[in-house]
Design goal:
This protein is of the alpha/beta class. The chain contains four helices and five strands, in the order ααββββαβα.
C-alpha cells in the first residue's frame, strides 16, 4: 500500500478511471492490454509481459527485484515488475529499473516518516 492504493486514489481525484489488479487477478493480461497508463508495483520480477502493453501506453515500473545473472560480478541484477526490453518496444514512455522511480520513492518515504 505504499504505491498502489495512494496512486489509485490520486488518479481518481483527477477523474481518471482506475482498475486495480494484483498478481492473482484473473485474465490480468487483458486488463493490462486496455490500459493507457500501467503502474506496476506487484513485487514479482518481470511479471508484466511486454506484449501485454498497449501500443502508446505509459509504463511506470515501481518494482525492484533481484534475479540471478551469472554475467554480473555479484551474480545478481536488478529488474522491475515489467519485462522492460519487450515493453519499451510498445510503450511511448517507460521508467527504467534501476534508476526510474526508486530514488523518488525512497525520497518521499523519508520525507513522510
Amino acid at each position: 500500500n505504499i504505491v498502489g492504493l495512494p496512486v489509485a486514489l490520486m488518479l481518481m481525484q483527477e477523474n481518471a478511471t482506475v482498475t486495480i489488479c494484483h498478481s492473482r487477478t484473473k485474465e490480468i493480461a487483458e486488463h493490462v492490454k486496455q490500459a493507457d497508463i500501467v503502474i506496476a508495483a506487484i513485487g514479482k520480477p518481470e511479471f508484466i509481459k511486454g506484449d501485454w502493453i498497449k501500443p502508446g501506453a505509459v509504463v511506470i515500473d515501481v518494482g525492484i527485484n533481484s534475479i540471478p545473472d551469472d554475467t554480473k560480478k555479484t551474480g545478481q541484477r536488478l529488474v522491475g515488475d515489467v519485462e522492460f526490453a519487450a515493453a519499451k518496444e510498445r510503450a511511448d514512455l517507460i521508467t527504467p529499473v534501476p534508476g526510474g522511480c526508486g530514488p523518488m520513492t525512497i525520497a518521499m518515504l523519508i520525507k513522510n516518516t
